[in-house]
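Predict structure. Input: Type IV pilus assembly PilZ, 180 residues.
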Amino acid sequence: MKTQDRKYSRVNTRIKAYMRRTVFDDSLPLFSSTLVGDTDDHAVKNLYGSHLPRELINFLQQMDEKVNMILSLINRETIQADFPLQGEVLEISGAGLKFTSQEDFEEGENMEMVLLLSQVPLRIVGMVGRIHRCEKVQGVPVWAVQYASIRDVDREKIVQFVFQEQREHIRGRKNENEPG
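Output follows.
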């Protein structure tokens, strides 16, 4: 009996996955999130620490959001061309994920995957994974993938995404329990 890697928290989700089959599981993913203009909140905080007028900072933030939208559209088209198979991730952690797809896969098959964690701001991660089992959920195949090759920066983005989703679930439950 196989034991699952439980070093990472996991969360149920629904995010878009773009995939392609690959022979090698130990090669670095072709796609890297470091290629995407992924801005972080520290850059914005640094602007507020500068001596720029607040109006200029607001203008720069709005321009940054617009550029992110344009980059999102361009990158999405490129990704769809390079990764022709599509799926939907139902559960994700720092060690692996579960997804559904119209395609058929086999256990042991290697997949290079690109996940669209967020559209605005654009947050995309890439990895190579190996399908290690298939479960049927209401008659639909759900494929479990264990990451075989993933850059640290991409794994960190996934872990941050999981924590953010968990916080939102907790807030949602808390709001449901409050008398209104």
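Helices lie at 41-49, 54-82, 152-177.
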